[in-house]
Design brief:
- By secondary structure, this protein is α+β, with helices and mostly antiparallel strands.
- Among the domains are: 41-154 and 609-700, HUPs (Rossmann fold), CATH 3.40.50.620; 309-515, Valyl/Leucyl/Isoleucyl-tRNA synthetase, editing domain (Isoleucyl-tRNA Synthetase, domain 2, Alpha-Beta Complex), CATH 3.90.740.10; 704-751, no CATH class; 765-912, Isoleucyl-tRNA Synthetase, Domain 1 (Orthogonal Bundle), CATH 1.10.730.10; 916-978, Ubiquitin-like (UB roll).
- The strands form 8 sheets. Strands 8, 9, 10, 11, 12, 13 and 14 form a 7-stranded mixed beta sheet that branches. Strands 24, 25, 26, 27, 28 and 29 form a 6-stranded mixed beta sheet that branches. A 4-stranded parallel beta sheet has the order 2-1-22-23, sandwiched between helices.
- The longest helix has 19 residues, at 826-844.
């Protein structure tokens, strides 16, 4: 910044005085935001391409990511910017540490809210979305976020849509080869579908039925190829809501099986849908969690969602059925205790015509559901189950229901005939859609057995004191033997292995690993989404469009809402809005065989598509020749070299790579992160990326919540108009009471929301305090990963800190800079060194709140001095800069520095000034002096206690006695009281 610029700023602010007020802060902040933008202060150089410069890029880089924001029409409240401020602080800190910091922000702009608004108002979703983005940009700009504006984009931008569609085609044109060797040394990866076809043609890979490739006709060849694709079309069960005319995600369906919007019935229907074969990557998605630095809670959530289980498939023979009834069990060792079976209401066994016409002899009344025949019972139960969601069916708290199918299956280990029930708690989408029920060792099976009067055979010996019911722990196997094999006396692991080997030898089962994860349903009956880059010929065969025809843009439609039906018309089918534009759907194209008639897909991709790869677009946002330049991707996200940690351990080289830090809410712990990892791994396998994971370190920030106030009727009142009063009662307690307009109201704690009438917006904070004060307050409220309550009245504390900082440099009456160029005294120099050392430690660990606390101590110390030394205030201004960048820039300029401090070195402590004065600490045991220790004068109680207990003299004195308590008076006394 030039001297003339500084003078102009001083002239502007002097019109409102020289005290650091919200008005002055606002002027300073907007002036600096303009300068940063004009000068490209936060531009991050790429090593090549149009975002590179002639200068060498720093070897050390730091790629920082915020979770992709959706631009809501409601705007931001003060809870939303918490993560953005945190990442901005971290990015500014690392930039001052000499790293090349990439920090950008785009917008996840496809989505249902804009489409719903379009249905209600007729306004095109693009108009709504762009208005929302403009509003969000304005609100976030006032925060002073250090983003590289050249890298911003929206998922609705045609160029972004083009590459989203291109990635889909890479997935479509790929298959998963479980035997192929990967770049990271493992086995199993995606390969181009053309290579599969070449291997089939050459005979190096067999066709499914063993016939030579040359003997297959065109349609048979297509079927073989399509069955291998990572993107394929399938009849998939979906949540169909006729009353809304659309398919709903599970999250949009209530536990009662109705739509959240409109409360319409929802039915399970099989519809022709695009699927992505994410299950091919299930093992890698689990195993590679160990290569990335994520919170264990999130890794556990991903592992549970993927649900890898090791056990066995077991075949139960069924009279009259062409195939055995196969179940997967993680406990084949309990097979001798299987006393009944359960199939899902959708299981094909029930459609094979083997459900008997009458109830078998011995059928109990409790099994029939009151129906005259098994067929009637099964049909009625299937109809009832169709109206329930998967979540409702799997609710552990609900009473289990079911009916006997009239079918018996044969247990392969003992030949017993076991009755087959159908029950809705078994889902066709999980495992084989059938289970063997072992009520003695499974709580759910035990509950079902009690209701339906089924036998319970214990196969695991429970511990002493067990009071009945299902025992789900480990123990010695019992009651598990036939003429050929005995598991009795074996531990669980050995019993599992033994019975699995026996089943395989008898061709009655085989060891297996299964997953809860299912392929990704990728179709939506929406308008506002990316069109699929494919067409269908007259025979219904799918054809990928060439790259030259991308992007496929959305057409204008006469109506944004899908066709609705009678709410109870379960047999209706979706008619998406794109189907209303026949001139767009039916097209004449030359795809290499001459001009022919083709038909576009009227479904669109889900909004997950854009958010599955946006982190790559930030790297090379203007590249129209490639998804990302390989050199650029390797620089920012490539494999990590081996690194040494401060504790002396070494982290080995890691091919997973990925962004250095990803910050966002834990609500995206599963789906978004899982989908993004899947897309990234496919692109890695195909050679487009050098890293196998998109996000190296993940940090989940907490939330800012707020108090809401309701009156006696439960009606919410404006939170900012509530008066708090604290009066001591007769017992001296001081419980606060709350009133609004003279009437008592009651406080509750939760999230912010318009309905709760407790929203505070960033705009209010900017107007009342300034952006820097708002930033300091949010960062000082507590640890970043912990939720905390918002309290507007407490913001003034952060404002006072900045006002004192301002006064330590600027005279409030004259506006002149008042710092002294005389040397600081030793105490001040030592405090500056300790502060710099502590702040560096806290900032590197993202403990911003404790870093601020240290700076406040130093700032208060300087305030008490007769004159503030330059050598003390300049380091403090630099330390403050990542958190309150505008005031820091302004003070830095007034201190005579012509350039921005954005890349000034972050202060480091002079080691000589960190040497502590020492004192002698007396260590007593039971009141008698046993040792004397030389310790730093500033030692904390916990550290001093640990040193005293490690004293050799103390340990000799205590002998075998324990310690009852330790009294610490740091730094001069420790008294250890032995246990009696």
């Amino acid at each position: 910044m030039s001297t003339n610029d500084a003078t102009t700023t001083e002239e502007r602010v002097s019109q409102t005085g020289h005290r650091y007020t919200a008005a002055l802060a606002g002027q300073i902040e907007q002036a600096w935001q303009d300068r940063w933008e004009e000068r490209g202060t936060f531009h991050a150089d790429n090593p090549s391409g149009d975002l590179s410069t002639s200068r060498d890029v720093p070897a050390e880089k730091f790629y920082l990511l915020d979770m992709f924001p959706y631009p809501s029409g409601k705007g931001l409240h003060v809870g939303h910017p918490l993560g953005y401020i945190a990442t901005d602080v971290v990015g500014r800190y690392h930039r001052m540490k000499g790293k090349n910091v990439l920090h950008a922000l785009g917008y996840d702009a496809f989505g249902l809210p804009a489409e719903q608004y379009a249905v209600q108002t007729g306004q095109h979703p693009r108009v709504t979305t762009e208005e929302n983005i403009a509003n969000m940009r304005t609100q976030l700009r006032r925060l002073g976020l250090a983003h590289d504006p050249r890298r911003t984009f929206s998922t609705t931008d045609p160029e972004f849509v083009r590459w989203t569609q291109w990635i889909f085609l890479q997935i479509f044109n790929s298959f998963y080869d479980a035997d192929a060797e990967r770049a990271d040394g493992g086995r199993g990866k995606a390969r181009p579908i053309a290579e599969l076809e070449a291997e089939l043609a050459a005979g190096t890979r067999e066709t499914p039925d063993g016939r030579p490739w040359a003997e297959l006709d065109t349609s048979e060849r297509r079927r073989v190829i399509d069955d291998h694709r990572l993107a394929y079309i399938s009849e998939a069960p979906v949540n169909w809501c006729p009353g809304l005319g659309t398919v709903l995600a599970n999250e949009e369906v209530t536990a009662e099986g109705r739509s959240e919007r409109g409360n319409f019935p929802v039915f399970k229907r099989n519809l022709r849908q695009w699927m992505l074969r994410i299950t091919a990557y299930a093992d890698r998605l689990v195993d590679d969690l160990d290569t990335i630095d994520w919170p264990e809670k999130v890794r556990s959530m991903q592992r549970n969602w993927i649900g890898r289980s090791t056990g066995a498939h077991v075949d139960f023979g069924v009279d009259g059925a062409a195939e055995p009834l196969t179940v997967f069990t993680t406990r084949p060792d309990t097979l001798f205790g299987a006393t009944f079976m359960v199939v899902s209401p959708e299981h094909p066994l029930l459609a094979d015509g083997i459900v008997p016409a009458s109830w078998p002899e011995g059928t109990k009344d409790a099994w029939t559901g009151g129906a005259a025949t098994p067929a009637d019972a099964v049909a009625a139960y299937q109809q009832a189950a169709a109206s329930k969601t998967d979540a409702e069916r799997q609710d552990e708290g609900r009473t289990k229901t079911g009916v006997f199918t009239g079918i018996f299956a044969t247990n392969p280990v003992n030949g017993d005939a076991v009755p087959v029930f159908t029950a809705d708690y078994v889902l066709m989408g999980y495992g084989t859609g059938a289970i063997m029920a072992v009520p003695a060792e499974d709580e759910r099976d035990y509950e079902f057995a009690q209701v339906y009067e089924l036998p319970v055979i214990r196969t695991v010996h429970p511990p002493e004191g067990f009071d009945g019911g299902a025992f789900t722990g480990e123990g010695v196997t019992i009651n598990s033997a036939n003429a050929e094999i005995s598991l009795n006396g074996l531990a669980m692991a050995e019993a599992k292995q033994t019975i699995t080997e026996w089943l395989e030898a008898k061709a009655a089962g085989r060891g297996a690993t299964t997953f809860r994860l299912r392929d990704w349903l990728f179709s939506r009956q929406r308008y506002w989404g990316e069109p699929f880059p494919v067409v269908y010929d007259e025979a219904g065969q799918v054809h990928a469009l060439p790259d030259s025809m991308l992007p496929v843009d959305l057409p204008e439609v006469p109506d944004y809402s899908p066709r609705t039906f009678d709410a109870d018309d379960a047999e209706s089918s979706p008619e998406p809005p794109l189907g209303r534009v026949p001139e767009w759907v039916k097209v004449e194209l030359d795809l290499g065989d001459g001009v022919k008639t083709y038909y576009r897909d009227t479904n669109t991709m889900p909004n997950w598509a854009g958010s599955s790869w946006y982190e790559l677009r930030y790297l090379d946002p203007r590249n129209d020749k490639a998804l990302v330049d390989p050199e650029v991707e390797q620089y920012w996200m490539g494999p990590r070299p081996a690194t040494s940690l401060t504790d002396g351990t070494t982290v080995p080289a890691n091919v997973s790579g990925g962004a250095d830090l990803y910050v966002g809410g834990v609500e995206h712990a599963v789906l978004h992160l899982l989908y993004a990892r899947f897309w990234h791994k496919v692109l890695f396998d195909l050679g487009y990326l050098s890293s196998s994971e998109p996000f190296h370190k993940l940090f989940n920030q907490g939330y800012i919540q707020a108090y809401a106030y309701a009156d006696a009727r439960g009606q919410y009142v404006p939170a900012d108009e509530v008066v708090e009063t604290t009066d001591a009662d007769d017992n001296g307690s001081a419980e606060p009471t709350y009133t609004w307009n003279g009437q008592e109201v009651f406080r509750e704690y939760g999230k912010m929301g318009k309905s709760l009438r407790n929203i505070v917006t960033p705009d209010e904070m900017y107007d009342d305090y300034g952006a820097d004060t708002f930033r300091v307050y949010e960062m000082s409220m507590g640890p970043l990963d912990v939720s905390r309550p918002w309290d507007t009245r407490a913001v003034v504390g952060s404002q006072r800190f900045l006002q004192r900082l301002w006064r330590n440099v600027v005279d409030e009456h004259t506006g002149e800079t008042t710092v002294a160029d005389t040397p600081a005294d030793l105490e001040t120099r030592k405090l500056v060194a300790r502060t710099a050392d502590g702040v560096e430690t806290e900032m590197s660990a993202m403990r911003v709140n404790t870093a601020i606390a240290r700076m406040i101590v130093l700032n208060n110390h300087l305030t008490a001095l007769p004159a503030v030394p330059r050598e003390a205030i300049e380091p403090l201004v630099l330390m403050v800069a990542p958190i309150a960048p505008h005031i820091a820039e302004e003070l830095w300029s007034r201190l005579g520095h012509p350039e921005s401090l954005a890349r000034e070195p972050f202060p480091t402590a002079d080691p000589a000034l960190l040497v502590e004065d020492t004192v002698v600490c007396v260590v007593q045991v039971a009141g008698k002096v046993r040792d004397r220790l030389d310790v730093p004068a500033s030692i904390g109680e916990d550290e001093l206690k640990a040193l005293a207990l490690e004293s050799a003299a103390v340990r000799r004195t205590l002998g075998d006695k324990g310690v009852r308590t330790v009294i610490v008076r740091a730094p001069k006394l420790v008294n250890i009281v032995p246990a009696k």
